[in-house]
Amino acid sequence: MKRFKLLAAAAGILSTAIVLFSCSKSGSSPNPNPGGGTGSDTVLVNLGTNIIVPSYQVLASSTAALDVAVTGFNASPSGATLATVQSALKSAYKAWAACSEFEFGPAADASLTTHFTNSFPTDTLLIRSNAGGASYAIDGIGNYAAQGFPALDYLLFANGNDITLARFTTDSHAAGAKTYLAALSASLKAKAATVNTAWSASGGNYLAKFEKATGVDAGSALSLLANAYVQDFDVNLQNYKVGIPIGLYGPSVLPKAPTKVEGYYGALSVQLLVAQVLAIQNIYLGGSGGSLDDKVAASKAQYNGGSLNDAIKAQIATLLTKIQALPDPLSTGIQNNSSAITDAYTEVRKLTVLLKVDMPSALGIKISFQDDDGD
Amino acid sequence: MVTKNYFTRYRHIAPLAVLRIAFGAVLFISTIRFLAKGWVHDFYIVPRFHFPFYGFGWVHPMGATGMYTLYWVMALAALLICIGLFYRVAAPVFFLCFVYAELLDKTYYLNHYYFVTICSFLLILVPANRYCSIDILRKPSLKVTQTPAWTILLFKYQLCIVYCCAGLSKLTRDWLIDAMPLRIWLPARSSIPLIGPLLRYEWTAYFFSWAGGLFDLSIVFLLLARPTRRIGYVLVIVFHVLTAVLFQIGMFPWLMMSATIVFFSEDFHVGLIRKARALFVGGGAANKHESRDRSLPAESPVYFQPRHQKILFGLLGVYFLLQILLPFRFLLYPGNLLWTEEGYRFSWRVMLMEKGGTTFFYVKDPATGRKSEVNNSAWLTAYQERMMETQPDMMLQYAHILKKQYQQQGIASPEVTVQSFVTLNGSGSRLYIDSTVNLAEEQESWLGHKKWILSFTNKPNP
User: Fold this and answer.
1) Which CATH architecture has domain A38-214?
2) Of the four, A148, A333, B236, B365, which is 20 to 30 A from B393 by CA?
């Protein structure tokens, strides 16, 4: 009997405590934390509805437009149709820069990830071999370095417009090149459509799932998003788009490698960098709705005597200015040892630390599923 | 006749049997959970490198088959401990398997794994299988009803050390004055049902900080004193259930709730066993057992050879002295303990830090002067990397891993440096390690201070 009394007492106290807690809601108003509220999070709703879903809509429509342009180009390759398809590629590539921050959920499921979509430098030998009649699976695991935007960049820009046109007209493998070009854009279009549908309310409605996954544990929407967002900046932008080309990052001690910039053949690096930093800024600020900035502000986290939120906003702005002033094309700037690039890299590094260390810490986000005793 | 003192006088063995069953059950569930989550694979099979504890560099993981076998053996041993079958073998087997796994990689160190290590060691020393177990059905001559008091006191003393040290470690400015890190963690949980909305208030963090500290410091005294024991155990349940709801701390609450049962009186435990028997065996059988029990106490004590007991007391004295000293070894080091983490582990410091960091490791070939940044994810798993990025001793181990790998790539004496930024309890990130020091040439030592950890008071990342 004693034991049951004890358990009853425990249950009684626990439920009293909970009732007391939940009843004492009135009184002084809490921190204006937009992340609060039971069962919903206005920040997740805003990010999902007004940032992520529209980004994928743009990617889906721009890759569809790219595919149309490719079809038109393949039907009658000319200076005019080449210009159309090149411009369509630029738009779609920039749309990707605003989606590479969300590599979780539907994007991961559909392999619409940097690994398959934006592995650069692209494998030109493999592309030529595929176009030359070798058998290939366009989305095959072994084909990751010969697909996506970098492969399109190579086929549509390498060695100038005359040689590019010749590649699709007079070259002995012109037919194969057309087929490969069509396969590349069709694959991108299909994946973007899949992910767009998976997020949309009328499709898979991952949006609803995302909005409901509140909290900060591993697997919560905020943890998934913050992790992917930081990863995109830290690894894709800092290491691959800048660090490796300028020779400061790599698996072994390497010299600088200007041809390893993103969008090398079309000299797209700087505009793509600007597009990505703008996306990073847009996600952080959340447009007119609540976003990471409000959560960081509500945490009252400090940085160097001021508020962390102000520090992050200022650093994104500083970086944007530096990136916009980069020598274009970036590869030439690297060859000329442009100090603007190393300056920009320093600012990238500062933002990496703020986003990777300070922001998750201020928000109390857990990345790993492993148990944790806070040490 | 040997005179009986406070430690050697006989007590009823029921508390020990209940502890064995409850703790064994939690160990079993915990081990199965570990297997089910795929952590054997993620922690011991996937990683290319490991971070063994200092002095245990010779301990290496086995292959996949070996590691899975180890964990299944561990699960079986835990089950056998729980039901009390082949206990004298099962208890040491569990302990050895668990210690081996823990020594492999400090990435996965948690205070509750340390607690399991310790308790499973103490369980080896006591005759917890001599009552209410399968062993006594198997071999009725094993059954006893009385055991020397020390076999139960061991666990109470151990729990006293755990809670008191946990409480003392909270008497800091961060915890009491700034309500850190709860002021970060609680608002982050404001979307949980019922108590969620309350967690947004700053005073809630202060309340939880002070209440938590007070709980840790006072709970063992409430449990030791008979009049407050019940309310004490109710507090144990409330406290640990709350932490289980609020934080991602796995089995810790359940381990503590099962272990603290040992504080209850022997009458309580005898009654508990009697009720459980009635439930499973039926009333008649229970009465039979009970009447047999009644006739037993005076004549069936477990016998320890006085000489053996004396030696054991000596060893346990040393053991408890170490248990008390270890948490205070941090006093040997300069600087902020939470920042340097020198003397942090094995000290029952839980929930004290919201700490995040990132590292940029560089390898330089002095022969050519060329320097490049290392891709950490090429060598470490994401979890290893993240744990390494806030712990200086792991950074040092990693630097030595890099040294060896780059030597194999043909750089005779690679210089390894790190630019590391860490934030602690909302301090804002700042430089953590002296980035001019070649970590490849630095060595780990027993209790030695790492001079290359920068002071917490240094300026933030400029």
Assistant:
1) Up-down Bundle (1.20)
2) B365
